[in-house]
Amino acid sequence: MTDLNGRRALVTGGGVGIGRSIVQRLCAAGADVVLTYRTHEPDQDFMRSCREGGRTCEAIPVDAHNESSIKDAVAKAAQTLGGIDILVNNIGGLVARVDVRAMELEFWREVLSVNLDSTFLFSREALRHMDQGWGRVVNIASLAGRNGGSNGSTAYATAKSGMFGFTRGLAKEVAPAGITVNAVAPGLILETPFHETFTTPANQVLAVEAIALKRPGVPGDVAGPVVWLCSEDSDFVTGAIIDVNGGQYFA
Fold first, then answer.
1. How many structural domains are present in the chain?
2. How many alpha carbons fall within 13 Å on the CB side of residue 242?
3. What is the pLDDT of residues 102-160, one digit of tens each?
4. If both were cysteines, with which of 127, 159, 173, 212 could 116 make a disulfide (CB 3.0 to 4.6 Å apart)?
5. Does 156 qualify as catalytic in the annotation?
6. CA-CA distance, 93 to 162, in Å (whole number)?
7. What integer pLDDT is reported at residue 1 of this predicted model?
8. Is the Cβ–Cβ distance between 187 and 244 less than 8 Å?
């Protein structure tokens, strides 16, 4: 098992779905974790399970559209953990399916704000708390950033594509400090609010047909690569985009 004993991690959007699974895996690997949430506050049974073995696991509410809220959340996380070694930027969402021809500028900005602006702001603030010499930033992007997404998700695809550029640019900036920055781009990951809300059962079936492995992903399929990117085993990996889609991208 990956050994993250002594590492201090902040996971945004860690109360449900992919984020929840990442929190669980990080704690199991020995890390102390603070997670943020907005509407999906983690239940106490989950929090207790993450604290087994004496690990720290705390939850902080945050408004991902608000710079002050993000700054306060990161400061509180750093105080709780005694610093930050690992940041997983998992906050994001489609918001709604809207055709560009009917899209208002306000909606466009909202989608970019929750996905791309939040990644920038959490990264900026967390990096100020990372010790020089070692650190990890992992951004949860999407297959939509590569292929443009499905109907009505152009704003979301644009934001996730932007995360690729942000990942590579930031990787160059912080490499001298011993910090790596990578992104994970999931495809169809069920058992998440995203697809429960925005992908009909019929469209889920069609999506599975386009996957080489002929099954949908689950949150644990994403958490495994993320935890590896947070470990010392990935020391020579930075600026990478890891596709986690069962072969959907090329099938």
1. 1
2. 20
3. 999 999 999 999 999 999 999 999 999 998 799 999 999 999 999 999 999 999 999 99
4. 159
5. yes
6. 14
7. 66
8. yes
Residue 3 lies inside a defined structural domain of this protein: no
- Active-site position among 11, 21, 33, 156: 156
pTM higher than 0.85, yes or no?
A: yes
Question: Which residues, listed in sequence order, are joined to residue 27 by a DSSP beta bridge?
Answer: none
Owning domain of residue 237: 8-243
In angstroms, the CA 62 to CA 166 distance is 22
Match 């603070």 to its residue by tokens.
34
Distance between CA atoms of 26 and 210, rounded to whole angstroms? 31
Q: Is residue 208 part of a domain?
A: yes
Tell me whether residue 2 is in a domain: no
- Residue 37 sits in a domain whose CATH number is 3.40.50.720
Query: Where are any strands of DSSP class E within the chain?
Result: 8-11, 32-37, 57-61, 86-89, 135-140, 179-186, 241-244
The pair phi, psi for residue 204, each rounded to 5°, is -65, -40
Q: Report d(CA 81, CA 78) in Å as an integer.
A: 5
Residue written as token pair 């009505």: 152
